[in-house]
């Protein structure tokens, strides 16, 4: 196996093996001079993978700050990290950061996202019946995968989409 | 123990027991019309706690994107999450998100940060000797602690600082 294909295998295991991510959004606060003041906000999100649409899928509450932020600005960044091991150093922990665009799905357009989400999180079914939750696609644009010391590489949208198909 | 003090105990265990966080920064790309285009960026960071200064401590490389971002805009958001348990649902996983300001420390001002960092990460000592790494204080402003379903609360700077002192 080449170095590249070994890293690809590791990343696929990370993406499909983990269930939660950190989601960074832009939080725009009204400014005094019509110039809005923007800060980053990071929140915890369970995620699923919709391999048909080649996207990551979130399920967000209308009441959540990140949902308000996504409505104002769809640019997001998502971090998925291998688990900390109490006995091991953490600096070389495997992770992937994915830049993307969020698309809030109308209920009638969410069938594929819903199926992918409930496949991973069957326990979330009652929440998906509530009207104030919505499915969100994260369409990846670029990424950065760190698999350990000296094992980092940039990922294109095409590489990321390929990883989300299987 | 009151509900509040039980949550405080849980949060203290989370902050002192975990070693890594997701750091959201603002990434500002040069715009065509002198209006810069801003996106969020999230990255993986090991963190320590400097209980003397009541801050979180990071150690960043001059080459890292988050370091460039911090120099342009010190507003950050940090997420610390309890470990996923393979046998358990993840939606109610405990986490805390902390909004704060980053202060890049000159080497001569970094003694307390360095001591706190090396207490937690003795294996990082060789990296702290490199000239292209720098210590960063994260001064907390507000936070949001979710300890489970129906157990969420906002945290003030004072509450966060108290949690960082012991």
Topology:
Two copies of one chain form a homodimer.
Chain A: H1 3-17, E1 20-29, E2 37-46, E3 48-50, E4 55-61, H2 65-72, E5 75-81, E6 95-104, H3 111-120, H4 125-128, E7 133-146, E8 152-155, H5 157-163
Antiparallel strand pairs in A: 1-2, 1-5, 3-4, 4-7, 5-6, 6-7, 7-8
3D architecture notes:
The structure is a homodimer of 166-residue chains. Chain A is α+β, with helices and mostly antiparallel strands and 166 residues long. Chain A has a single domain (3-163), classed as Electron Transport, Fmn-binding Protein, Chain A (Pnp Oxidase, Chain A, Roll). Helices cover 27% and strands 39% of the residues of chain A. Chain A contains five helices and eight strands; from the N terminus they run αββββαββααββα. In chain A, strands 1, 2, 3, 4, 5, 6, 7 and 8 form an eight-stranded antiparallel beta sheet that branches. In chain A, a hairpin with a 4-residue loop joins strand 3 (48-50) and strand 4. Chain A is globular, with a radius of gyration of 17 Å. The model of chain A has no long low-confidence stretch (mean pLDDT 93). At the A-B interface, strand 1, strand 2, strand 5 and strand 6 of A face strand 1, strand 2, strand 5 and strand 6 of B.
């Amino acid at each position: 196996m080449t170095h590249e294909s070994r890293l690809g295998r590791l990343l696929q295991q990370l993406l499909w093996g983990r269930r939660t991510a950190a989601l960074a959004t832009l939080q725009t606060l009204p400014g005094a001079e019509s110039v809005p003041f923007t800060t980053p906000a990071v929140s915890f999100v369970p995620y699923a993978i919709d391999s048909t649409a080649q996207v990551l899928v979130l399920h967000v509450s209308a009441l959540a700050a990140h949902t308000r932020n996504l409505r104002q600005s769809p640019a997001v960044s998502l971090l998925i990290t291998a688990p900390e091991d109490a006995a091991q150093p953490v600096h070389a922990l495997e992770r992937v950061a994915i830049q993307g665009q969020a698309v809030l799905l109308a209920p009638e357009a969410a069938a594929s996202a819903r199926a992918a989400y409930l496949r991973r999180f069957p326990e979330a079914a009652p929440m998906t019946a509530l009207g104030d939750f919505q499915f969100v696609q994260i369409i990846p644009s670029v990424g950065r995968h760190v698999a350990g010391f000296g094992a980092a590489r940039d990922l294109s949208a095409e590489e990321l989409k390929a990883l989300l198909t299987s």
